[in-house]
Design brief:
The chain is α/β, with parallel strands linked by helices and 248 residues long. The chain is built from 10 helices and 7 strands. Helices cover 32% and strands 22% of the residues. The protein has a 7-stranded mixed beta sheet with strand order 3-2-1-4-5-7-6, sandwiched between helices. The structure holds S-adenosylmethionine. The site of S-adenosylmethionine has 18 residues, from helix 4.
Amino acid sequence: MGPNALWLVEWLTGALALEPGMRVLDLGCGKALSSIFLAKEFGVRVWAADLWMSPDHNWRRVCEAGVGELVCPIKAEAHALPFAQGYFDAIVSIDSYHYFGTDQMYLAYVTGMLRTGGQIGMVTPGLVQEIEGQAPAHLTQPQSNGKIFWEDELWGFHSPDWWGQLWRRSGKLEGVKTDLLADGWRLWADFERACEAAGKNHFPSDAEAIERDAGRYLGFVRAVGTKVRGECMNYYDPALGAVVGVDR
Ligand SMILES: C[S@@+](CC[C@H](N)C(=O)[O-])C[C@H]1O[C@@H](n2cnc3c(N)ncnc32)[C@H](O)[C@@H]1O
């Protein structure tokens, strides 16, 4: 669904240590291509969780890829995950984390489902440098296909330094590392152009704006860390008032 799930998950796994049999949550897995990749390449067991995509369609793709024993598709909202505390050895997220993970409380919540010593890693479209003030004109001008690249939701795009600070301040991780994919903007534009040529774009192409930008602002950010601390309050629990005893 995004640009390009397999390239991005391959890059992410370069910064993780995955062993056969590990339990891995693929959060915001979309069409589960990254989940299939993880199962095939590393022999890990993957819970392929997504909000918008149907687990029925993902299950069909998983079976066609021959990894039905390793991948479990599930419909789940990122703030209401149905997993036990400490269950996963690793949590990964490809081109999705910026939809739900930019608030200070989210990392503490999601790492609740990671065992101590477990790894979390995400790759997301992001920024080379934070934008001060207005979005740059070259990203807000219409492209020749009429599409304007910059939408208000893209303020959820951030730089490696921004993500690094958010994750370090959570107090839940050690060894937090963030970086930028070298020439990521070129890969992003190439993927958009390839989808255009194949007539497979779900939405009008963003290639022109990405090429105009040429890596000044746009790129792909990777963040990884290892869980050091256990429990925390689940601030997304609708029953929190009763849990802490004030809703009486
Ligand atoms: C751009 S798509 C990327 C999908 C896939 N990882 C890929 O790279 O092709 C973003 C995905 O994030 C998922 N997503 C967005 N908000 C979510 C939420 N609150 N909970 C779970 N998944 C969410 C959507 O369902 C969607 O499939």
